[in-house]
Amino acid sequence: MIIDPKKLPDLSFNPKKYDKHVVFLQTQLDLLGFEVNDKDGYFGKNTLKAVNDFQLFYSLPKSNTVDKDFWSKLLYAASLLTEASEEDIPAPRPAWIEEDYSAIEIPKFAVADIEEETMLASENNVKKVIGGVLIIALLLAICLPKK
Predict the structure, then answer these.
(1) CA nearest 43: which of 3, 68, 9, 93?
(2) CA distances from 88 to 67, 84, 139 (A)
(3) Is pTM, for the whole model, over 0.70?
């Protein structure tokens, strides 16, 4: 089923008014990992937090409303979710900060590039040191009085 975001209404924070579109919003946010707790059709504090988290994650301006841009990003993200497997989908929250990256395998070509750059840097440093020693020796030979 294709849903046109232009046909969905703008929604705003209103914990006292039921709206079937808010149920849809809550369902989509929850599907993407933005917890709303209850999918009750009321745009309350939990839904507002999920909306604000979604806005932050997708670089939308933070507001208390769901507009056409919000709907477009939400529906696009949800469509990607239904096309991919769970393993392919990144966490929608910055939980990756807490992950342990020590087990990440670095490709061999990257290691070779790093080793080559390190060797070139070391070689250049040796050349600089030898050049500096030669200059000092030359200056000493010129400046020291001869006996």
Answers:
(1) 9
(2) 28, 6, 65
(3) no
